[in-house]
Amino acid sequence: MVEVLIKPMHAIFFNEKFIDGALIGGASLDANVFADILDIYRRLKEK
Amino acid sequence: MIIANWKANGNEIINNSWCNTFSSLVDNESYKFVGIAPSSLHFHQIKNFFKQTSIQVGFQDIDIDGGSRTGSISVSMASNDGCAFSLAGHSERREIFKDDNALIKEKIEKILDHKMTAVFCIGESFEDYQSENTKDVLKLQILESLPSSLKTNNLIIAYEPVWAIGSGRTPNAKEVNSIHEFIKDVVQSATVNNIEPKVLYGGSVNQANACDFF
Known about the structure:
The complex is a heterodimer of chains A (about 45) and B (about 210). Chain A is an alpha+beta fold and about 45 residues long.
């Protein structure tokens, strides 16, 4: 089974210029984790 | 953009709980950055729950045609029902269902023809990574699947480094950033209007090495 796991600590990816977002598999099944990633994404991309 | 790919997971009760939890945590402004690809079976449930928001709800895959194609959901069916986007070429589709570059190209063309956004997934195998063929493989996937007359910005590319699966290795942000820059360059060079697509990261790891990963 393939799982895609990006947890909030990995959202450092969004600091990078050419990374425009993420396609999230397994981790997105947890609404809390997904919301955390979204929050970090917004904070990093809008700064 | 952050897209949730729920794969073959969920049921009405679990999905409803997810939606209630998520909506309690996220402000309205954040919704515009979100895409959700539930199972096709639950597309309407999720779409209806978020109908007052700017969340985009899409499909994980789509068939290129309708009619006598048992088990399929055609791109026009999806479009008529308000589908915002569809994935094409996800590594699991390539591996399990044998979607090849030619079929993926047809899917992308159909998705774009129906005014939806195509989320075109690419990624190299571990063998390709080991032999340092990453860029060659990605370039081939792009060139063989990208519509030759692409003129729309409704194309998002998702880079999944499939080599991370089971290898114990994980990409670092600099590596991914470099690959994303390369992907944008390839697409720009290959398109009439020098389109620079958004490129999403999809980091893959299997359950066996997840503990090490985190």
